[in-house]
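Q: Predict the assembly, please.
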Amino acid sequence: MLAVEGLSCRYGAIEATHDVELTVAEGEIVTLIGANGAGKTSVLGAISGLVSHTGTITLDGEPLGRSPARIVRAGVVQVPEGREVFGQLSVEENLRMGAYARRGRKAIACDLAEQLERFPVLGERRRLPAASLSGGQQQMLAIARAMLARPRLLMLDEPSLGLAPVLVREIMATIRRLNEDEGLTVLLVEQSVALALAVAGRGYVLERGRVALAGTAVELSASPQVRSAYLGLGEQAA
Amino acid sequence: MIGGYNLFLLKGVVVYALVALGLNVLLGYSGQVSLGHAGLLAVGAYVSAIAADRLGVPIVVALVLAAVATALVGALLAWPATRLSGHYLAIATLGFAIIIQKALYELPGLTGGRNGLAVPEASLLGLDLQVAAFQYWFALAIALLAFGFVLALVRSHVGRGWVALKDSVPAAAACGIDVPRYRVKAFVVSAALTGVAGSLFSLHVGFLSADSFNLELSIAFLIAVVVGGMGSVLGAVLGAAFLIAMPALLVDEAELQEIVYGVAIVLVVLALPRGLAQLAEALPRRRSAPTPPPQPDADADAWTELTRANEPPPPALVVEDMRIAFDGVQALDGLSFSVEPGQAVGLMGPNGAGKTTVFNVLCGYYRADGGTARLGEQELLGRAPHELARAGLARSFQQALLFQDLSVRDNLLVGAHSRFEAGVVGAGVRSRRSRAEERGAAARADAVLAVLELGDRADVRARELPFGQRKLVDLGRAVMGRPRLLLLDEPAAGLNSAETARLGGLIERIRSELGCSVLLIEHDTELVMGLCSKVVAIDFGETIATGTPAEVRRNPKVVEAYLGTQPEEMVGTDARG
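A: Predicted assembly structure:
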């Protein structure tokens, strides 16, 4: 479905990613892992049209383009790092912002009701400002908001950031459910490599802006390189 | 030799460059907008002219009087700045300028009222300052002194403090910066410079008319700062030159002149967001020397200087019955816990349990409704954040509130703010003490960067760092003030397991070598287990369990509220977030 080839992103003199190549097929969960500064967020930003880049990005063989609004309309939607909910808008207004690019009031109302049902805690707080939600609730809101754009490919940037263990599991279960029940394709960036590899089918390891390793989640979990560098499991544990 | 009209224009550039410099200190560095600088210029000009006329003082004395008087007025004007910011402050300064202009009209005995005031002739060392060339050299000499002063000032802890409070007030306060006082200081320095400019302005024009100190002039100064380049000392000169040169270029075509002026402003702002000074960035830089290779010995010495190996252990923290409510929601409901000297204590709980609120109350951001918190003999509650920083508290922020416009090294230097004793004047003239303090802090910053393994990022702007490295810089900044109690808010958020393990070693090293206690909010259970000898679990603002990490982890309440009911279902043991 999504194919990225020869992707390089620059910030001034610094090259954040170099010649990155990756694919995501329909119905997959694919994870991008790597150290801080490896370029994971830059890759998502480039796909979303938020980070200027060179290289080709195609969706179903068609160039995705560089306009963030059109990319969202094409069905590629990002849940940003750190949630980035609109703090002063209410929960419901935040959700409606997710459907900003869509037409059809009825369909939007229907999707809104569906998300509030999926995340009951958001339903209870639909009139409250998003800033009053706890971190976990804000993360759910950010995911629900992205879902209102009717994504074909959902990209999540560190959804577990700052969440209590019980909530991390809930978020991961939600991602898996969206994938299994609705066939949603997911590209997941996650620092908790163990969790990411448990949820994803395949993964890419980025090192200093380049793809250093690619494979199925099972292969990556078994790779000595991943075990020592990202899972924090030394040789004695391996 | 330049003469006549061109020399007149050059004098104007010098005077306006001084005003732009003063306004830049305020706007470009401390982030405060003033629409009242024409009023301040008037105060300087009239005080100087009246002192020379009525008291017959020499021009240098008149100039100093103008600077002092304008600085005092600036302090008065700064009073709203301690409680206002942004648009409200701009409007307040606008009101001030209107009052000044009105006063000039209404005090004819002193200012000549609507008839204006002739500026008395002045001489210096026998040179007649009515001669344009002498006047120019005099103004230039004064301006060079002022520019040297400001250049030293903005590169010192004072200038970094201004940029810091512009970027993030909570983080600046956590570093020990008295934010309201620093805002006032920026106003006073800005006003003094404008007062000096006023004195030179009176010589330059020879005749003062209240009409000329209008809103248009205040706005022209703002244009000079923005077009020249905010936060750039060179920008003040370029902006002033722009202000004088643009109208002078097409002096015979009045209508065309205004159009060209307007278009030029729009073009500069669009093409050069950092102003004309941005053009200078493109010039090849003559680097003084390649950055010296890191010196392990020097770093080790500076790190030793930070540590407290030979000092008494840090005081204990005892929190009793801490309470606070927001809009009827009881966020902390009688929370009690303690941190023994040198101990690392974990604060755990679900999202929304009140963990960060505990930090915000301890650090003085929120006023508790009740309870006590003692660090040794000192009561912490009810004191301002910057006082608590001086009392030995340092914190990191969940969102790593770095000063985005400052380099990584400068972020760390702001962390050492409470250890600087030099004042504004000392920093501006580069006094011996100020230089020694800067050198010491720079060495300690390099040492901390070496320990954090961030040495190669020292000159990178904070905004360019990925989240995980920002968190590390935030930690380093907290360490720079030599805290006795270090409050860390989710330091491992955004780090993977291997990086988290390194961070654990780092925190342990800081705790043992720096001789401080640590209170840690962290969702990474493994990190908490590895670092802390005690864990306090809270929910709904109350303690639900206290004990060793292993005890708390098994506590049924903690399992239900925080870990989830079946911990073994977790993937591995990596229950982090």
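The CA atoms of residues 254 and 468 of chain B lie 57 Å apart. The two ends of chain B are 71 Å apart (CA to CA).
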